[in-house]
Amino acid sequence: MDIRHLQYFVEAARFQSFTKAAQSLYITQPTISKMIKNLEEELGVVLFERTGKRIKLTDAGSILLEQAQQMVQSFGQMNSRLSELMEMKVGHIRIGLPPMVGVTFFPRIIGKFREKYPKITMQLFEHGAKKVEADVGSGELDIGVILLPTNEEKFDSFCFLRQDLMLVVPSSHKLANRDEVPFIELKDEPFLLFHEDFTLHDRIIAECEKLGFHPDVVYKSTQWDFISEMVAANMGIALLPEAICHELDQERLRVIPLTSPSIPWHLALIWRKDSYLSFATREWIAFAREVLGHEV
């Protein structure tokens, strides 16, 4: 027995006629008669009394009709919900964003996506890139933004921004008027870093150690604007992404390119490889790829 048997049975009961039910279903009368006969044989009961061209429900038929109507209605509702989902009318997406990435790039993208798909809800989680990557890997998040490189065996991704970290110093600093600064000249400077949850924390320390020194870290924060204010207060120097530096107070702070080496800041959207992605998540990835490709 499948849903078609029940649909044909309900229509036959509604019209009390195999011929009229067949016309309603756009099938032949012998087809519906055969389907009802198969259903009766499978259930072991007679569902209709047949008198000439007229049919009438038996007691067993009346019992089945009550249940069959509910099942056919539920099946129709399920198909409707799936159709809505596949047409991107409904859905839910969990997105992980590092704080400085979210405030810089994603408000306008999320706004445009909501305009196009108002019934798709989005839940945003602000964490450092390391936690975002871990939560996408565990399935707690559908997609996330991280700092490359990432585990290519575990994640699919696309890179939407390639910039470098910039040196940020107070306007009164001895390096403030330089056109560029070799990294090694920072070895005696007090550093203001992001918290350990941020990939940049480990990356900056690793670059320092490659040059033979361990940075003097005087403060760590999760907020780039607080770090920049501490730099302006002459508490230390910071290395911030180029995109963030555009938001800084240019009168109190100086932004200088780093050399020998420069530190890349490459952002990517990631999702788990070889795992199911909801229709809404797939559409978000395609939408973000298109919008970020044009705007960033």
UniProtKB/TrEMBL annotation:
It comes from the Bacteria. The keyword DNA-binding applies. Residues 1-58 form the HTH lysR-type domain. PANTHER family: HTH-TYPE TRANSCRIPTIONAL REGULATOR YBHD, NITROGEN ASSIMILATION TRANSCRIPTIONAL ACTIVATOR-RELATED. Pfam families: HTH_1 (PF00126), LysR_substrate (PF03466). Keywords: DNA-binding, Transcription, Transcription regulation. InterPro entries: HTH-type_LysR_regulators, LysR_HTH_N, LysR_subst-bd, WH-like_DNA-bd_sf, WH_DNA-bd_sf. Belongs to the LysR transcriptional regulatory family. This is HTH-type transcriptional regulator YwbI.
